[in-house]
């Protein structure tokens, strides 16, 4: 769908990705950042995957690096009445992390939300303990709108959650700076 000369690509999820997602989602390096951090059974994954087709409130994209699938980015709760959606992402292949790819994906997902889905607001929730990610979102103009205390109970106990939101007007303010940052890291946007 969207390509950059620096080897990053986003493409829509395909049926062939079903097993890959099962593998990724059950990796410790992905699970630990999710609300559900216990392994997901095969039958539950199959049911979840099947329920995706025809669901207009969700859109999933595979993140590729140099032609290899490395992660997932998605919109959920797409609400065309209130013109908003939530989003999330992960790089399952840890070798793909720390190259600026996450920041490139964030830019592309925001652009998709406002220019393709024509939304007015993009929002997300992040574990408070995952400070690198909510700070990354803030650097793209997301504002902290909520601090939910003891909001999720994971295998190691309760966690607080940060709620962040980005309005179309917020994005207009920071977009050029974000674009310049990505260009300086070698990403075409
Ligand atoms: C979140 C994630 C996609 C970020 O992707 P990434 O490619 O590693 O991040 P980038 O290399 O683009 O870095 C983006 C910025 O975040 C910072 N950053 C990223 N990971 C960091 C970490 N673990 N600690 C501190 N800073 C970090 C980078 O320094 C960079 O800052 P800069 O733009 O000022 O240089 C990836 O780390 C991941 O998959 N994490 C696990 C899943 C997850 O937490 N998903 C979010 C759940 S809501």
From TrEMBL:
<dbReference type="InterPro" id="IPR020036">
    <property type="entry name" value="PseH"/>
</dbReference>
<dbReference type="InterPro" id="IPR000182">
    <property type="entry name" value="GNAT_dom"/>
</dbReference>
<feature type="domain" description="N-acetyltransferase">
    <location>
        <begin position="8"/>
        <end position="169"/>
    </location>
</feature>
<dbReference type="Pfam" id="PF13302">
    <property type="entry name" value="Acetyltransf_3"/>
</dbReference>
<dbReference type="GO" id="GO:0016747">
    <property type="term" value="F:acyltransferase activity, transferring groups other than amino-acyl groups"/>
</dbReference>
<dbReference type="InterPro" id="IPR016181">
    <property type="entry name" value="Acyl_CoA_acyltransferase"/>
</dbReference>
<protein>
    <submittedName>
        <fullName>Pseudaminic acid biosynthesis N-acetyl transferase</fullName>
    </submittedName>
</protein>
<keyword id="KW-0808">Transferase</keyword>
């Amino acid at each position: 769908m969207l390509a950059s000369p620096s080897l990053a690509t986003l493409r829509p999820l395909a049926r062939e990705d079903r097993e890959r997602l099962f593998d990724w989602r059950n990796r410790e390096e992905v699970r630990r950042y999710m609300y559900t951090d216990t392994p997901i059974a095969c039958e539950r994954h199959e049911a979840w995957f099947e329920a995706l087709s025809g669901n207009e409130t969700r859109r999933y994209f595979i993140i590729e690096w140099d032609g290899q699938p490395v992660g997932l980015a998605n919109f959920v709760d797409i609400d065309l009445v209130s013109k908003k959606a939530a989003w999330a992402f992960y790089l399952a292949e840890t070798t793909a992390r720390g190259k600026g790819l996450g920041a490139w994906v964030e830019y592309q997902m925001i652009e998709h939300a406002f220019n393709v889905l024509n939304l007015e607001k993009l929002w997300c929730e992040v574990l408070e303990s995952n400070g690198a990610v909510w700070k990354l979102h803030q650097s793209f103009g997301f504002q902290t709108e909520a601090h939910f205390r003891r909001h999720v109970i994971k295998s190691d106990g309760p966690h607080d959650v940060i709620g962040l939101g980005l309005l179309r007007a917020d994005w207009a303010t920071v977009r050029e700076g974000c674009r310049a940052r990505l260009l300086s890291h070698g990403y075409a946007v």
